[in-house]
Every structure is written in structure tokens, then in C-alpha cells.
Design brief:
Elements lengths: L7 H10 L8 E6 L5 E5 L8 H4 L11 E5 L2 E2 L1 H6 L4 H10 L8 E6 L5 E5 L5
Antiparallel strand pairs: 1-2, 3-4, 3-5, 5-6
Subcellular location: Cell membrane
Keywords: Cell membrane, Membrane, Transmembrane, Transmembrane helix
Pfam families: DUF421 (PF04239)
């Protein structure tokens, strides 16, 4: 570590950044050529995964899809979300707006949640 000018403080900081608070939980720490620290913890020091517990984990992570970007409709994304223009018009009215061109950003996530940011001076 000294040859690479890597201090104990930097080591502890890197470990904390990887979620390891106790240096005793580390079996190996390897300083890669890129300067990145790879850490291999002792078995049993990590929390169990869903597989370890025999639980089927649902894939609940999905990125929001942009439907309107700076007043421009992205019709391909509307189709991908299996939504119609009538559906979009209803959502625009629910936001108190007259037209999708009054929207700065409108997104739809996998759970059906809508995030709408109107353009300034559009309400």
C-alpha cells in the first residue's frame, strides 16, 4: 500500500463506500491497476440474498419512460407503454393543462405512476 501511496484512511474510506464498516470482515482487498479497490469479504459477513433464503424476488425495478419531452410527444414510447392518445389527453387534463405541448416532461413508470412537470407559465 505504501508503494502505491494508498493510506489506511483511504482504505477505510473505500471499504465504507462498498458497505463494509469493519476491516475484519475483509478476507482480501486488491488494489487494481485502475486504482479501484476490489474487496472479497469473509463468507458469512454479507447479508443473505433472496436466493440464500429461498425466496423468489420480484423484479420491481423499472425505468420511467419519457412520453413528452419539452412539449414534444414521443409517440413510439406511448405505443411501447400500450397507451393511446386519448389516454394521454386525459392525463394532461388531470394535470390542469390544455395540451401536451404545455408539458416540459411527462414520464410513466412500470407501476403506472405518472410524473408531470409543466412548462413554466403553462398553468
Amino acid at each position: 500500500m505504501r508503494r502505491n501511496r494508498f493510506t489506511i484512511d483511504e482504505l477505510l474510506e473505500e471499504l465504507r463506500g462498498q458497505g463494509i464498516c469493519d476491516i475484519n470482515d475483509v478476507k482480501y482487498a486488491i488494489l487494481e491497476n485502475s486504482g479501484q479497490l476490489s474487496v472479497l469479504p469473509w463468507p458469512g459477513t454479507q447479508p443473505p440474498s433472496a436466493d440464500d433464503l429461498g425466496v423468489k424476488a420480484a423484479d420491481s425495478i423499472s425505468l420511467p419512460v419519457v412520453l413528452v419531452n419539452d412539449g414534444r410527444l414521443i409517440s413510439r414510447n406511448l405505443e411501447l407503454c400500450e397507451k393511446t392518445m386519448d389516454w394521454l389527453k386525459k392525463q394532461v387534463r388531470r394535470q390542469g393543462l390544455k395540451d401536451y405541448r404545455d408539458i416540459f416532461l411527462l414520464t410513466l413508470d412500470g407501476g403506472g405512476n405518472i410524473n408531470c412537470i409543466p412548462k413554466e407559465n403553462s398553468k
